[in-house]
Amino acid sequence: MSDDTQTTTTDERAEIQAEIEETREQLGETAAALAHKADVKARAHDAVEEKKAELRGKAEELKSTAQEKLGAAKGAAQDRAPDGAQQGAQQAAQAAQHAATQAQQAAKENPLPAAAIGALVAGLLVGYLVGRRR
Description:
mainly alpha
């Protein structure tokens, strides 16, 4: 009978030890989640990065839409214009495309507007979080 009791006690100890390890893991995850939630600066930075990525995506989308419309307009102008006017339309289309490329390059070289929007979003987020705690 003492062997059964000893085996049961050993099994119970192993189960308790496993429960303790599982509880420690859960506690560690909970502590990490709370630390992340309390780190307002990191959360604001994450929000800014997310908005930057969103704005970059929209810029690419607008660029492709503009290029599609430019191509369609160029084709329509060439179809309607006589030969001399077609050459002028080609030059105008090239000039418009060059201007669009320059505008895109200027936006890439001077990301201040995107940074300003990101800073605004971060400020709103921090203000919301601070106001919510009161």
